[in-house]
Amino acid sequence: MVAGICDLDRVVKAEQNIAGPGCARRRGERNVSGSLTMLVVLITLIHLAALIVMIVIRVRRNEVEGTAGNSDLIRPCAVCGEPASRRGYDGLDPDEQRDPYTGRSYSNDLAYYRPLCAAH
Fold first, then answer.
1. How many domains does the chain have?
2. C-alpha dist (Å) from residue 4 to 17, 94, 96
3. Domain membership flag for residue 90
4. Which of 112, 111, 107, 109 is nearest to 96 (CA)?
5. What is the pLDDT of residues 17-57, one digit of tens each?
6. What is the pTM of this model?
7. Staple partner for 117: which of 4, 52, 68, 82, CB 3.0–4.6 Å?
């Protein structure tokens, strides 16, 4: 009985065990497992480096924004005093502009935009 290249579902006697392609490693062949291990280690190191870069970016951004204890970025709503989530135009600019598509008025001067909460 001649065995196929790689019959894994049958029991092979010791005298029938012949090294064929894909079934057994011959002496002098490269270790594929070592190459795969090296690939996994390199990918892990790349992911670790990316994680460190993301953490550094996040920490630097918090320092720049002043969220490490400085609360100047959170302003109260001009109407009710709740924390503001946006700025709204108050309509008091003497040089008021109109959007030709929507018809809404706006100002080029940011001094005419008041902090408003989501309810206002």
1. 2
2. 11, 90, 86
3. yes
4. 107
5. 565 555 555 555 555 678 899 999 999 999 999 999 999 98
6. 0.39
7. 82
